[in-house]
Design a protein that fits this description.
One of its GO terms (molecular function) is peptidase activity. It comes from Flavimaribacter sediminis. This protein is α+β, with helices and mostly antiparallel strands. The protein contains 10 helices and 9 strands. Helices cover 53% and strands 17% of the residues.
Length: 360
């Protein structure tokens, strides 16, 4: 708005803001009056009202408020689900059946809201440094021994709706179910199984029991792995247990050595028995063959004897004599010798030769 004059005073001798003429400001503070703050605010509002179309600022304020509300609503209505997450939208507090996959999504806020859950594999440690520590890890075996079992459970969420709304505290429930399942399986087996002999079978059985129980609760959890980290006797009886373990190892070693010696002796005995059986079979075959040969020879001789008895008899007699005299000492004494000579038979020489032949 143009002023009445350019020297800072109005036509009635007042200043441009309707005040009286001011003199020069004095540093001492005794001359001019300070400006009124209410007047300054009122004049600013008047200038803003005059600058708006129609001379009113209510429309602009309403537009700004509406835009702000729209931005707030859009901020609440648009949400993002990360790749390792799943989202469940609730309409008036009731979950929908659809599961929001990774990406950008929209909902009607405020009547709808979203609950996000991570689907990455998680781990629960039981025993050792876990929250309850020794109270969780001490378990009674089937042979009335106490063992300190530390194990872990790896799980992932497969049904976000069940995980969020069917069980109040799924992780704590899983911890309690895992501890109970381990106690049940360990309580049916001897301590030796959990220490070293059958640890993997125990872990597999515990996994099956946990999964069946969580499925009964409808927790929406899938148990991937149950791993027994450590199994040891309580610290109070660790030394005695080590002695028992060493004794059992010595027993196993002695049994192994005995089995080795037994197998050695049995192998040798079986070899000797097989050799004796083979020699007996060979002797049997030889005797049978000789008997059969003698029988065949006898039959052949008999046939010859039947054809020529005298000749065969004489031949058999001569062959028998030949067989007899072949290995005997013979002395020939002539009966028709010179008269007056007594036949001499060297009996001492015969006895000496006989004794020498027997010693040889």
């Amino acid at each position: 708005m143009p002023w009445s004059n350019q020297n800072g005073s109005g036509g009635n001798g007042q200043g441009p803001w309707g005040q009286g003429p001011r003199g020069p400001r004095k540093t001492g503070g005794g001359g001019g009056q300070p400006p009124d703050l209410e007047d300054i605010i009122r004049r600013s509002q008047d200038q803003l009202r005059n600058a708006l179309p129609g001379g009113s600022g209510g429309g602009l304020i309403a537009i700004i408020v509406v835009i702000g509300l729209l931005l707030l609503w859009a901020f609440q209505a648009i949400y993002t689900v990360q790749p390792d997450e799943r989202g469940v939208v609730l309409l008036f507090g009731k979950p929908k059946t659809e599961v929001s996959q990774p990406g950008l999504h929209f909902l009607w806020w405020p009547i709808e809201r979203v609950e996000k859950v991570s689907i990455v594999e998680k781990q629960i440690n039981i025993g050792g440094n876990s929250p309850r520590g020794a109270a969780q890890s001490l378990m009674l075996t089937g042979d009335q021994n106490i063992v300190d079992v530390q194990f872990s459970v790896l799980y992932s969420i497969t049904n976000p709706q069940d995980y969020l709304f069917d069980v109040e505290n799924p992780e704590d429930t899983l911890r309690q179910v895992a501890e109970s399942a381990m106690r049940e399986v360990v309580g049916r087996r001897p301590a030796q199984d959990i220490f070293r002999d059958n640890r993997q079978a125990i872990a597999d059985s515990v996994k099956i029991t946990i999964q069946e129980t969580m499925d009964t609760y409808g927790a929406g959890i899938s148990v991937n792995t149950v791993s027994i980290e450590d199994a040891a006797p309580p610290r109070e009886v660790a030394d005695a247990f080590d002695e028992v373990q060493r004794a059992e190892q010595d027993e196993d070693r002695f049994v192994e050595e005995a089995n080795q010696y037994s197998n050695q002796q049995l192998g040798r005995a079986r070899g000797e028995a097989a050799q004796i059986r083979e020699e007996a079979a060979a002797y049997k075959n030889r005797v049978v063959n000789e008997a059969e040969g003698e029988a065949q020879r006898f039959e052949a001789i008999y046939e010859e004897y039947a054809n020529a008895p005298d000749v065969t008899r004489k031949r058999l007699f001569l062959e028998t004599l030949e067989e007899v005299y072949r290995t005997s000492n013979k002395f020939i004494v002539e009966q028709n010798g010179e008269q007056g000579v007594v036949p001499y038979l060297p009996l001492n020489e015969l006895n000496k030769q006989k004794s020498q032949g027997g010693s040889n």
